[in-house]
Design a protein that fits this description.
By secondary structure, the protein is mostly helical. The protein folds into two domains: 67 residues; 164 residues, no CATH class. Helix 1 packs antiparallel against helix 2. It is elongated and about 65 Å long.
């Protein structure tokens, strides 16, 4: 039964998210708790020194993982460029583009982005789109422009809801599309984890089995996006 102690870390993360606590603090705390409980499950003594050693070992593991994958943080170098483009009117031009397209709607724009984002993620082009590169400077202004084009100026609450849908669309698309790419970190992590349990799982097999999941995500979230315009219209009427 002791091996199930590590699941307490997952419960801690879920509870922290439900309580809307700081995500970074919740995830780090959950990782530290999981590391300490894992040491106990593998025979560590319930003594202050042993628990402290387990905590130190967990912090070292997190530091090693961060140092090994520090190239991931290179994406933050694009933020100054995005800020400069926004200062020069990138969002205004995105709004004007949608204003000239008569059939554009919030749901249609997000569905097109979802499909494109999922395809690029499946090809391994993870940094081609994203929250910083595309959602904030382009997708969100375009969706807001489509919202205003359909029914005039919207309330701040409704605009925030549209922005949340933009961010969620990107997250869902990349989450279920990236595993199709055989060399992505998530696939390699699954292979390593399964190998640790004595199960030999080829990366190609995981990538192929990720395709049905990605298709289901496209169908389910796509249907939600097609119904989004109707829901936004109802909320606009309620706000009025």
């Amino acid at each position: 039964m002791l091996e199930y102690l590590v699941l307490a870390g997952i419960a801690l993360v879920v509870g922290g998210f439900l309580l809307r606590l700081n995500p970074l603090l919740v995830v780090v705390t959950g990782a530290l708790v999981t590391g300490v409980l894992g040491a106990i499950a593998h025979g560590a003594a319930l003594e202050p020194k042993a628990l402290f050693d387990a905590l130190v070992a967990t912090v070292k593991t997190l530091g090693h993982a961060f140092n090994t994958n520090r190239n991931i943080t290179l994406i933050w170098m694009i933020l100054p460029l995005i800020g400069l483009l926004e200062r020069e009117g990138l969002q205004e031009r995105a709004r004007n583009l949608i204003g000239r397209i008569g059939v554009a709607s919030v749901g249609g724009i997000l569905l097109a982005y979802f499909f494109t984002r999922q395809i690029t993620a499946a090809l391994g082009l993870m940094s081609m789109m994203g929250q910083a590169q595309t959602v904030r400077p382009l997708l969100a202004p375009m969706a807001e422009a489509a919202l205003e084009k359909e029914g005039g100026p919207a309330s701040d609450k409704l605009r925030e809801r549209v922005r949340a849908w933009c961010a969620a669309t990107d997250n869902v698309a990349v989450f279920y599309g990236e595993d199709i790419f055989i060399a992505i970190g998530a696939v390699l992590l699954i292979v390593g984890t399964m190998k640790g349990f004595g199960v030999n799982t080829p990366p190609l097999s995981i990538s192929l089995w990720a395709i049905p999941t990605a298709v289901c995500a496209l169908v389910i979230h796509g249907a939600r996006l097609l119904l989004l315009d109707r829901g936004l219209k109802r909320r606009r009427e309620q706000d009025q």
